[in-house]
């Protein structure tokens, strides 16, 4: 299982600010990817709005907007939920490089086995 580290996610982006995440060339079009994040730390939630502006070769602009809520889990809460689901946590890593999970780790990568 791979989930965001809440210690990092809650501070990753300025609250309510539109951030350019990337510019991508897709066929003949250029896609600008934007995001706006509203954090609610007391609810362990992020409300994320992704905005995709697609510019075609004729100059036309098309916008798609995707909104979703992202629930953040802390280490001990996640371990308990995994155990309650009938799994045993074998390891909790901080990233795909097999580094140990720490507060500053970018991810929480959990290796669990069905009991």
Explain how this protein is built.
A hairpin with a 4-residue loop joins strand 3 (29-40) and strand 4 (45-55). Helix content is 15%, strand content 52%. It is elongated and about 55 Å long. It has two domains: 14-72, Single Sheet (N-terminal domain of TfIIb); 73-115, no CATH class. By secondary structure, it is mostly beta strands. It is built from two helices and seven strands, in the order βαββββαββ. The chain has a four-stranded antiparallel beta sheet with strand order 2-3-4-5, with no helix packed on it. The longest helix is centred in the C-terminal third of the chain and has 10 residues, at 75-84. It has helices at residues 6-12, 75-84, and strands spanning 2-4, 19-26, 29-40, 45-55, 61-71, 87-93, 107-114. The mean pLDDT is 95.
Which key terms come to mind for this protein?
2 domains, elongated, 115 residues, 4-stranded antiparallel sheet, mainly beta, N-terminal domain of TfIIb, 2 helices, 3-stranded antiparallel sheet, 7 strands
What is the structure about, briefly put?
The protein is mainly beta. It is built from two helices and seven strands.
| H/E topology pattern | EHEEEEHEE
Structural class: mainly beta
Annotated CATH architecture of the largest domain: Single Sheet
Radius of gyration, rounded? 18 Å
- The CATH fourth-level homologous superfamily of the largest domain: S-adenosyl-L-methionine-dependent methyltransferases
Q: Indicate the CATH topology of the largest domain.
A: N-terminal domain of TfIIb
Mean pLDDT level: 95
Number of strands: 7
